[in-house]
Amino acid sequence: MTQGHEASGTIVELGAGVTGWKEGDRVIPSAGRPCLKCRKCRRGAFTDCLSLNLMAFAYDGAWAEYHVAQASGMTKIPDNVPMDQAALLADAVSTPYAAVVRTGKVHMGNAVAVWGVGGVGTHLVQLAKLAGGVPSSPLTSTTQSSSAPSDSVPITPCAATTLSSCRRSRTSPTAA
Ligand SMILES: [Zn+2]
């Protein structure tokens, strides 16, 4: 299995019947392919597919000189966006964007806790802030990594499994 589910590239050849694209177009292939069989796909809601096939897990990824991409899942890259930055949009930016905008519906003043400030989490902090939220991550100031965004607010980690029980344990040291 070829790895690589965040990619950007230039179209070198179109498959039979593909329209709307041309050789030389700069594109981002989708990081997944809808199953085309589930009830969401049958209604045309491909982005809500219940059995999404992930690139580099269900089929070969793009860590290769050439990759065959599904035409309907590609996004055109604007001329002013560098290819290496565009590649991140397929997952490390689009996933946290959906979490902030669609799932979390973050808006002005919302507290947003981010566990794991890696590739996705770093972008989630920035997107939550753009949405008006107040992002925080469970890192102390002495353990905060240099890769964590400087505008995230460190919070003390706790063993609580839910944010509400974490809040209780922070405000009441005797509470478990
Ligand atoms: Zn589906």
Give a verbal description of the structure.
This protein is α/β, with parallel strands linked by helices. The chain has a single domain, classed as Alpha-Beta Complex (Quinone Oxidoreductase, Chain A, domain 1). The chain contains five helices and eight strands; from the N terminus they run E-E-E-H-E-E-H-H-E-H-E-E-H. It has helices at residues 39-42, 83-87, 94-103, 119-130, 163-171, and strands spanning 9-10, 26-28, 32-33, 53-54, 75-76, 111-113, 134-137, 153-154. The chain has a three-stranded antiparallel beta sheet. Strands 6-7-8 form a three-stranded parallel beta sheet, with helices on one face. A two-stranded antiparallel sheet has the order 3-4. Strand 6, helix 4 and strand 7 (134-137) form a beta-alpha-beta unit. Residues 140-144 and 156-176 have low confidence and may be disordered. Bound molecules: zinc ion (ZN). The site of zinc ion has 9 residues, from helix 1. One of its GO terms (molecular function) is oxidoreductase activity. Its cofactor is Zn(2+). Pfam families: ADH_N.
